Amino acid sequence: MILEFCRWIQYSAPLVAMRDSPWVFPVIATIHLIGLTMIGGAVLLVDLRLLGLGLRHQPVALLARDAERWLLRGLFVAMSTGVLLFMCFATKYYYLTFFWVKMAALILVIVLTFSVRRRITAANESQVNDATGRLVAVVSLTLWTTVALGGRYIGFP
Fold it and tell me: What's the pTM?
Protein backbone atom coordinates (compact mmCIF):
# COMPACT_ATOMS: atom_id res chain seq x y z
CA MET A 1 0.00 0.00 0.00
CA ILE A 2 2.79 2.45 0.89
CA LEU A 3 4.68 1.50 -2.27
CA GLU A 4 1.60 2.12 -4.42
CA PHE A 5 1.18 5.54 -2.81
CA CYS A 6 4.85 6.29 -3.53
CA ARG A 7 4.38 5.31 -7.20
CA TRP A 8 1.26 7.45 -7.47
CA ILE A 9 3.06 10.48 -6.05
CA GLN A 10 6.24 10.03 -8.06
CA TYR A 11 4.48 9.68 -11.40
CA SER A 12 1.95 12.46 -10.93
CA ALA A 13 2.16 15.16 -13.60
CA PRO A 14 3.55 17.95 -11.38
CA LEU A 15 6.34 15.73 -10.06
CA VAL A 16 7.28 14.47 -13.51
CA ALA A 17 7.49 18.09 -14.67
CA MET A 18 9.59 19.00 -11.64
CA ARG A 19 12.02 16.14 -12.28
CA ASP A 20 12.25 16.97 -15.97
CA SER A 21 12.99 20.65 -15.37
CA PRO A 22 16.68 21.53 -15.56
CA TRP A 23 16.38 24.03 -12.72
CA VAL A 24 13.39 23.29 -10.42
CA PHE A 25 14.83 20.25 -8.64
CA PRO A 26 18.28 21.85 -8.11
CA VAL A 27 16.68 25.04 -6.73
CA ILE A 28 14.55 23.04 -4.28
CA ALA A 29 17.59 20.97 -3.25
CA THR A 30 19.56 24.18 -2.66
CA ILE A 31 16.79 25.65 -0.50
CA HIS A 32 16.69 22.34 1.39
CA LEU A 33 20.40 22.68 2.14
CA ILE A 34 19.88 26.24 3.39
CA GLY A 35 17.26 24.92 5.83
CA LEU A 36 19.67 22.21 6.96
CA THR A 37 22.34 24.84 7.55
CA MET A 38 19.94 26.83 9.73
CA ILE A 39 19.16 23.70 11.74
CA GLY A 40 22.83 22.80 12.06
CA GLY A 41 23.81 26.23 13.33
CA ALA A 42 21.03 26.36 15.91
CA VAL A 43 21.69 22.83 17.13
CA LEU A 44 25.46 23.24 17.32
CA LEU A 45 25.27 26.49 19.30
CA VAL A 46 23.13 24.98 22.03
CA ASP A 47 24.59 21.46 22.12
CA LEU A 48 28.19 22.68 22.17
CA ARG A 49 27.22 25.05 24.99
CA LEU A 50 25.69 22.12 26.91
CA LEU A 51 28.94 20.23 26.38
CA GLY A 52 30.86 23.22 27.80
CA LEU A 53 32.70 23.77 24.52
CA GLY A 54 31.77 27.35 23.80
CA LEU A 55 29.84 30.45 24.82
CA ARG A 56 30.36 29.57 28.48
CA HIS A 57 29.44 33.07 29.63
CA GLN A 58 26.12 32.93 27.78
CA PRO A 59 23.18 31.52 29.78
CA VAL A 60 21.94 28.27 28.23
CA ALA A 61 18.28 29.29 28.50
CA LEU A 62 18.84 32.55 26.60
CA LEU A 63 20.98 30.90 23.95
CA ALA A 64 18.47 28.07 23.47
CA ARG A 65 15.54 30.47 23.24
CA ASP A 66 17.27 32.56 20.57
CA ALA A 67 18.53 29.52 18.65
CA GLU A 68 15.11 27.84 18.69
CA ARG A 69 13.72 30.53 16.39
CA TRP A 70 16.32 29.57 13.78
CA LEU A 71 15.79 25.88 14.43
CA LEU A 72 12.06 26.20 13.79
CA ARG A 73 12.60 28.20 10.62
CA GLY A 74 15.19 25.72 9.42
CA LEU A 75 12.89 22.79 10.17
CA PHE A 76 10.07 24.43 8.24
CA VAL A 77 12.30 25.05 5.20
CA ALA A 78 14.01 21.65 5.30
CA MET A 79 10.85 19.65 5.88
CA SER A 80 8.75 21.42 3.27
CA THR A 81 11.45 21.10 0.62
CA GLY A 82 12.31 17.58 1.82
CA VAL A 83 8.75 16.46 1.11
CA LEU A 84 9.09 17.74 -2.45
CA LEU A 85 12.45 16.03 -2.90
CA PHE A 86 10.99 12.80 -1.54
CA MET A 87 8.01 12.94 -3.86
CA CYS A 88 10.25 13.19 -6.92
CA PHE A 89 11.85 9.82 -6.20
CA ALA A 90 9.40 8.25 -3.75
CA THR A 91 9.71 4.67 -5.03
CA LYS A 92 13.53 4.84 -4.91
CA TYR A 93 13.43 6.11 -1.33
CA TYR A 94 10.92 3.43 -0.36
CA TYR A 95 13.60 0.80 -0.97
CA LEU A 96 16.52 2.70 0.62
CA THR A 97 17.41 1.70 4.16
CA PHE A 98 19.18 5.04 4.60
CA PHE A 99 15.88 6.84 4.00
CA TRP A 100 14.09 4.90 6.74
CA VAL A 101 17.02 5.34 9.15
CA LYS A 102 16.99 9.07 8.45
CA MET A 103 13.24 9.34 9.03
CA ALA A 104 13.42 7.37 12.29
CA ALA A 105 16.32 9.51 13.54
CA LEU A 106 14.48 12.68 12.48
CA ILE A 107 11.36 11.73 14.43
CA LEU A 108 13.43 10.80 17.48
CA VAL A 109 15.51 13.99 17.43
CA ILE A 110 12.45 16.21 16.99
CA VAL A 111 10.79 14.55 19.99
CA LEU A 112 14.03 14.84 22.00
CA THR A 113 14.56 18.47 21.00
CA PHE A 114 11.10 19.71 21.88
CA SER A 115 10.70 17.71 25.07
CA VAL A 116 13.82 16.67 27.00
CA ARG A 117 16.31 19.14 25.48
CA ARG A 118 13.88 22.03 25.83
CA ARG A 119 13.31 21.23 29.53
CA ILE A 120 17.06 20.95 30.17
CA THR A 121 17.87 24.24 28.44
CA ALA A 122 14.96 26.14 30.02
CA ALA A 123 15.80 25.04 33.56
CA ASN A 124 17.87 27.12 35.92
CA GLU A 125 21.50 26.14 35.32
CA SER A 126 22.04 25.45 39.02
CA GLN A 127 19.22 22.88 38.90
CA VAL A 128 20.58 20.89 35.95
CA ASN A 129 23.30 18.32 36.39
CA ASP A 130 26.16 18.97 33.93
CA ALA A 131 26.25 15.26 33.10
CA THR A 132 22.57 15.32 32.14
CA GLY A 133 23.07 18.33 29.87
CA ARG A 134 26.08 16.67 28.27
CA LEU A 135 24.19 13.42 27.72
CA VAL A 136 21.29 15.25 26.08
CA ALA A 137 23.74 17.16 23.85
CA VAL A 138 25.56 13.98 22.81
CA VAL A 139 22.30 12.19 22.00
CA SER A 140 21.05 15.25 20.10
CA LEU A 141 24.25 15.57 18.07
CA THR A 142 24.31 11.83 17.36
CA LEU A 143 20.73 11.84 16.09
CA TRP A 144 21.22 14.99 13.99
CA THR A 145 24.40 13.47 12.53
CA THR A 146 22.43 10.32 11.67
CA VAL A 147 19.83 12.48 9.91
CA ALA A 148 22.56 14.29 7.96
CA LEU A 149 24.43 11.12 7.00
CA GLY A 150 21.17 9.43 6.03
CA GLY A 151 20.43 12.36 3.71
CA ARG A 152 23.91 12.22 2.27
CA TYR A 153 23.60 8.52 1.48
CA ILE A 154 20.11 8.95 0.06
CA GLY A 155 21.40 11.43 -2.50
CA PHE A 156 24.61 9.56 -3.28
CA PRO A 157 24.27 5.85 -2.38
Answer: 0.89
